[in-house]
């Protein structure tokens, strides 16, 4: 017997923000870093920041980037932002810093013309080269 459950509905109403969260939302620089201990509302602030910039700041969702520590956290952030915006984007709104870096490398490789890297495991030549390098010898 298979039991299917619906995923819990994501909250699409705007949450109430405290003074620190509102100050972050009111900041208008091109870059904003939100720091805080676990459970202090960093994720809520980040989601509301993207929603505010897209709805009232003239940005498209593709111009926003949220960096997080894990793929699971990135997926949850994307779900929350798309639920609040009631639309999707063509580029991922939230990524890990590793995925963001790999995306930059992949885009540069595509612009230069050689075969694009598909995933880090395809970099076996880089691993074998770095393993063969000695601290005193010239590396590949």
Helices and strands, with pairings:
Elements: H1 19-26, H2 42-55, E1 66-68, H3 71-85, E2 94-96, H4 97-112, H5 124-132
Parallel strand pairs: 1-2
Keywords:
5 helices; disordered C terminus; single chain; 140 residues; 2 strands; two-stranded parallel ribbon; mainly alpha
TL;DR?
The protein is mainly alpha-helical and 140 residues long.
Classify the beta-strand content into a percent band. Answer: under 5%
Task: Enumerate how many helices there are, as a single number.
Answer: 5
Quick one: how many beta strands?
Answer: 2
How far is the N terminus from the C terminus? 57 Å
Mean pLDDT: 80
Biggest sheet layout = 2 strands, parallel
Widest sheet: strand order? 1-2
Low-confidence stretches: 125-140
> What is Rg?
20 Å
Question: What class do helices, strands and sheet pairing give?
Answer: mainly alpha
Helical content band: 40-55%
Encode the helix/strand succession as letters.
HHEHEHH
Q: What sort of overall outline do the alpha carbons produce when their principal axes are compared?
A: globular
């Amino acid at each position: 017997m298979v039991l299917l459950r619906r995923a819990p509905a994501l909250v699409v109403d705007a949450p109430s923000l405290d003074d620190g969260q509102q100050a972050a939302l009111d900041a208008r620089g091109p870059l904003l870093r939100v720091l805080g201990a676990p459970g202090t509302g960093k994720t809520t602030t980040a989601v509301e920041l993207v929603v505010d910039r897209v709805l009232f700041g003239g940005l498209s969702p593709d111009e926003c980037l949220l960096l997080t520590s894990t793929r699971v956290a990135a997926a949850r952030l994307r779900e929350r932002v798309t639920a609040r915006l009631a639309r999707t984007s063509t580029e991922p709104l939230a990524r890990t810093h590793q995925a963001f870096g790999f995306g930059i490398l992949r885009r540069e490789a595509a612009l230069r013309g050689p075969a694009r890297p598909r995933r880090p495991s395809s970099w076996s030549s880089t691993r074998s080269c770095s393993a063969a390098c000695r601290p005193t010898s010239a590396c590949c």
